[in-house]
Amino acid sequence: MSSFNGICTFARSFGATAKRLARSRQGVAAVEFALIAPILLTLYFVTLEVSHAIETNKKVGRAASMIADLITQQPKMTTGIMDPIMQIGEATLQPYNRSRLAVHVTGIQISNDETPTVTVAWSRRMTDTGSTGSDPAEKAGDPTTVPDELKIPGTFLVRVQTTLDYRPIIAWSADAKQTLGLMGAFDNINMSEQYYLRPRMSNAISCDDC
User: Fold this and answer.
1) What's the pTM?
2) Does residue 91 sit in helix, strand or coil?
3) Exposed, middle or buried, 160 (CB in 10 Å: 0-12/13-18/19+)?
4) Which of 6, 98, 131, 133 has its CA 20 to 30 A from that of 43?
C-alpha cells in the first residue's frame, strides 16, 4: 500500500512540475534570439554589400562619362594628357580599392563614303594593374564598330570603355571565400560601361604618340 501511495505522490509531483514547465516562459526570448540573430545578421551584411555594389557600379559609369568628356574637350591629344585623365577617372572609385579600374579609349574615324567605313584612328588603354599603353587589340586602321545611329559619314567619335572586377567585402579574400563556401562564388562581379562622344573643339582629335 505504501508503494502505491509513493507512486501516486510521484505522479502528482511530476504532473505539477510538468504543468509549471509548460506555463514557464523563461528562456524563450533567448532561444528566439538565437534562431533569428543569424538571419538578421545575414540580411544586414547582404543589404550593405548590395548598396556598396550599386554605388560602385554607378562610379564605373561616371568614370567613363568623365574621361570621355575631358578628352573630347581637347582639339589634340597626347599620351601625356590622356594617361592622367584615365588615372583621374580611376580616382572617382574611391574609397573602393579592392580592385583597379581598366580603361580603354579609342578614337574612331567614320569615312565620308556613301556606305561609310568605321576604322580605329588611335587607341590607348590603362589596365587593371595601372600600366598604360596602346591597345594591341585596336590598332590604327583596324576596322571597328559603332551603333548604327552614330554611323554618320565624315564624323569622328571617342569611345571610352571602363571595366571593373568588383570584389565584395564579404568574399574578397581567400580566407573569406573558404569560410563562406558557396557564397564565395560571388567574389568577382564584372562591371562595365561604354560611352561615345563627339569632339567639342574640332572635327577630329588626333593623337600622334598613342
Assistant:
1) 0.73
2) helix
3) buried
4) 98
